[in-house]
Amino acid sequence: MVAAVTVNSLKPLTCAPFFSSLNSFNCPCSLVSIPTIHSRLRPLLAQMAATGEVEPQVIDSHLHVWASPQEAAEKYPYFPGQEPSLTGHVEFLLECMEEAGVDGALIVQPINHKFDHSYVTSVLKKFPSKFVGCCLANPAEDGSGIKHLEDLVLKDGYRAVRFNPYLWPSGEKMTNKIGKALFSKAGELGVPVGFMCMKGLLLHLQEIEELCTEFPSTVVLLDHVAFCKPPKNDEERRGYSELLKLSRFPQVYVKFSALFRVSRNPYPYEDLPHVLPQLVSSYGAHRIMWGSDFPYVVAECGYKEAREAVSYLAKQGHLPSSATEWIMGKTIMQLFDGKWSSVAN
Question: Where is the Amidohydrolase-related domain (predicted)?
């Protein structure tokens, strides 16, 4: 079992000797058909459960909720042009979580409501032991987003903030005056900053490195494996290598989330078994956390299947059950001071 560590100290984190023995791209990946994978996935997970290998507490580190069309019409309007095409209200999420055996989640403010956090705030207040909120940073040039961030954290109880670089004014970077003020304020408030590098890590790498270097007390979450797919060309290999090297900053964590966005293969993502142990080798399992990217994942493979895929990939990558426990819940529970520790299984 990996020993618990104190996150706030931001000291380099170490992992068991097992992880240091893993070499790059050396984990076996069996080339079997998807139907065969599906047929054997559930029995494998059942066997893991029977032997006590499945973690008792599962926390989803990345998902979204938004108002139903009726709620949007009555109280929580969508941002113009961002009307969702998928069902994403909290009642649907709760049904999916119950079926999948997921105990809690970090809700990331969706672009569908942009900077209007009223719907997510209502969900956090209604289910305080189930959810934690991650708000969306507003990089407006007038600096109003800094006070907005402070209010969301201190008044509404949000515990993290997302930086979407594509919301910055045209030509501006996340390292501009406003970006640094937001990043610094997040560290002051003790809330992690999640980075969404949808157009590629290399595009934003210098900004992330500069912010981490200048503000080492601000914790960083790299959403969706920083959108680094298993590399097939030199540029992708460089991006993947830089992802692993970001582990030199002890404040950086990786979300092993939205696997349908990272993998080139359909569920259960047979090109990823080597990726997970490599991340563990670089970061330690206690700096990696699973996330579903609900509700988008529902149409891709299903919410329950998204949870099961990680246990399957961990098994394929020969990770010990202790590492899987960290990835599936212990990491994020530790990062947020055991916020979900009172949740009943």
Answer: 59-336
